[in-house]
């Protein structure tokens, strides 16, 4: 018995469908955000303020690497700055926005699931079966990016900017909002950058990008990556190189993904002939 086809949705129907996906995603973010809000001590003292400690794992690893090469250049003994709150509502505002950010990070798999449900009606039946793989891979890449931002980008930025000084007459009293904004942007930017293979996959499926296009503009991509690395890291060469390496690896992986997509589509076309 043939299955009944669903009637084609109008533009307003699509808008209404999108609205409900956004509502459910927002509710998920707020649900996890409430949990993060309640766990204030753990979120701030144990996680966010950890890179301010000279004993943070990243600093210890860098120190051991430095000592392996016979120098103490990457070893640090102290973070010579303190936090301060200058506005009456600053700490509360930081608490709210941090909770929302944590909520977004934790709810990311659910958000990806909602995105998939919105775009799946326009996909083939075989493509719809890849929902689980899409959600798992997207979430995995995002969380790897978040960890990279937290353990690599954030410590490099905090160490450089926290120790940078133009004069001994200037005290290093850092606004709490400024510090949290640095951590937040480093983590979210890294998480989203690591979604590059997924973006390339869909752009290739849509016919907007090909492997040859990615190869031809590889040099341009290198410059773009270095500029992007300079934006999300402190202005020193070592930090930029450390951040640029995984992004370049992701770019090369994206080329192979684009090849695989075109190869699969070519096989499907031959089968249908």
UniProtKB/TrEMBL annotation:
GO cellular component: TAT protein transport complex
InterPro entries tied to this protein: TatC
Source species, domain of life: Bacteria
An annotated GO BP: protein transport by the Tat complex
Parts of the chain that traverse the membrane: 27-50, 94-113, 134-153, 179-204, 216-232, 238-257
Single Gene Ontology MF annotation: proton motive force dependent protein transmembrane transporter activity
Localization in the cell: Cell membrane; Membrane
UniProt function note: Part of the twin-arginine translocation (Tat) system that transports large folded proteins containing a characteristic twin-arginine motif in their signal peptide across membranes.
Descriptive protein name: Sec-independent protein translocase protein TatC
Record organism: Lutibacter oricola
Gene name in the database record: tatC
